[in-house]
Structure formats: structure tokens, C-alpha cells
Amino acid sequence: MAARRVLVSGAGIAGTTLAYWLHRNGFEPVVVERAPALRPGGYKIDVRGAALPVVERMGLLDAVREARTDMQQAFIVDAKGRKAAAMDADTFGGRVHGDAEIHRGALARLIHGLTADTVEYRFGDSIATLEQDADGVDVVFESGRSERFDLVAGADGLHSRTRKAAFGPESEYVVGLGYGVASCSVPNTLGLDRCEMTYVGAGRTALVYHTAGSDHATALFLWAAEALEYDRKDPAAPAQVLRDAYAGEGWEVPKLLEAAADAEDLYLDPLAQVRMDHWSQGRVALLGDAAHAASAASGQGTSLALVGAYVLAGELARDGGHERAFQAYEERMRPFAETNQALGPKNVKSMVMASEAQVRFGMGFLKVASRLPGKDRLMAPVVKAIHKAATAIDLPEYGK
């Protein structure tokens, strides 16, 4: 194939995985990442279904399992900290058939390590503009540097600059689900050991968890919010948004809010999906969240990123040019992505209860159900739906 030099925008899971498979298939990928270094931390994520053979073919499956979170138990608590329900952590997380849970940052380091010495990474820069013609793509970077590439792959997330440059404004493609999501590192003041505690209030949920080998805990917030309007240039604004959203809430929430205000890694965003009619435009293609974000509520973003990068690189390695490759990539990935996107709106309704009455009923039900034999079977329909979506693709064997 003539198109060999590929700019990959974004050094997240999708971008680094694509770089690995492109290099393995004889391409010359260049990865540009806006952050000054590989992004550390992040909440725990799952590698499931069709993503497992992708990781295995990269030679990383054993390392992923070695770095697993090793979560043991999950508890749901009321406003006074009383445990309303307890279950096995894998059951609570919907994990079956060898699914692996790992910190996002740990997985990113493992994948980056495969290409750190063979692929050019440019940190602290990003795409400003791009212009295509029949033979290539001229890219101007925020640093002022100009360069020409055969192809460009946008793996730069929900707020993709590549998508904006090639397809148009974010507002045309990003669809909010009516919730906000935030996460950050917090002190492990509860003394948790490989377990998580979830508190559910009306319209807002908060949880905190500790994973194997960690010297801190992680807090996650999910709440009903039609819009998140705040000054994104103000570093104190996200913590204030959280304080306003969770004002008057019980359990450990006030302490978690204080810790969030001091956290250096506080992440806050709308819970949203990306919905597009097509993922390529000329010599530019999108993958991962930039193309089809399923939202954190789906639990499938990482697996979609891994599988999509594998398929896109594999199709580009076949004969027929980039137009055929982009079409084949989308034809194979779109049904898989849409099936997993459907999990998000369904899942979030069980994560965030709409009213005080729903919270009281739900907590009462859990208290009774948690004492019954076979309580873990309550999660069986959820686990089945997740596994079905996670395996809803026929994964090809590409070349080498």
C-alpha cells in the first residue's frame, strides 16, 4: 500500500494500540499528544470480550492480568454508612469469561511500552488545522510546525480536535445523556482493601474504591445534570460544580468533596456519546471515543478502543487503498460500536436513581435480596447483556 506515513492524534488506549499495529504492519506512525507526557491514573476499566484476543495478540495478556485491580468485594451503603448490600466485585462489575479489570493508566503504560523505542511520540502538541488533497494531508500543529502525512487517524477522545478539523463542530456529534461524571484520587481514609463502596442519593451517586497495590483510593461521582456550564479556564471550577451538585448529601460525600478540591487529577465532564454517520473523511479516519464514544456508563470504551485500533490497522494493511480500508473498518466496527453504545443509557438509569422514593425502595429491596441464597444471580441479566455486547463482533486474523 502506498499510504505509509500516518499521523495518530492522541496517545490514549486507541492511539497507542493503533500505533503498535500500524508499525507491526509496516507503516510509519507518528503519535502526537496534547498532554506533556503519557496520561497517568484514571479510573479502573475493563478489558472484555473481543478485546481480550487483541491484547493477547499484542503479547500483553499476562501483563494485564498481573496488573489487575484484584477487587474483592463491593458494598452499597446508605446515608449513615450502613451496608445495604454486598457482593463479589466481579459480579458487581459484570465480569465473566476471563474479563480483566485494570487501571487505565496501567494499561496505557503497557501498550506504550511496546512502541516507545520504535514509534515517534510527540508530547505537548496537537493538531491545529489540516488540509487534504488527493495525495495526502497537510497538518499544521499548535506548535507552529507544518508537516505532510499520507493519512491521519483521530484517536483524541470525546472532545477530538481531529474530528473538529475534519468533520465540523463538536455540537454536531456529541450527545449528552443528561448526567455529569467526575473522578479523582482521594486519601484512603476508609481503610479500604481492594473493595468499593457505593452511596446512592436521589439523582446522584458517589463511590470510592481501593485497588491492589495502591496507596490511595479513587472517588467517582455520577449525577443527573442536563448541562455542565462552567468556566473551563478556571482550575477551581470543576470542584465547585461538584460541591453544588452534591450539596447536603450524606455518608462520606462531604469529605470526598473536600478531597476532590485538593486533587491534582480531578476529571469532570458530561456523560456523553459520539454519534456520527461516518467515521472517515477523505484521508482522515476516527477511532475510539472520537468516533463512537459509548460513555463511562457502558463500561466498554476501552474494549471498543482496542478492537477498533486493531481492525483499522488490519484493514489498512490489506490491499486496496485507504478508501477500501476505511469502508471495511467501519462496516465491521459500526454494529459492534452501536451495540455497546446502547448499554450506556440503560446502565446509567440503574446507577443513578431519580427520586427519594426510588432510593428508599431500591435500598429496601437490596437489604432483603442480599440475605437470600443465590443473591449474585440478581446481576445475571446485567452480566449477560454486557458479555453479549462485548463479543458482538467477528474478529479477523490480520496478516502477521
TrEMBL record:
Coiled coil: none
Entry's transmembrane regions: none
Pfam family membership, one: FAD_binding_3
Gene Ontology terms, MF aspect: monooxygenase activity
InterPro entries in UniProt: FAD-bd, FAD/NAD-bd_sf, FAD_aromatic-hydroxylase
Domain FAD-binding positions: 5-339
Protein's recorded name: FAD-dependent monooxygenase
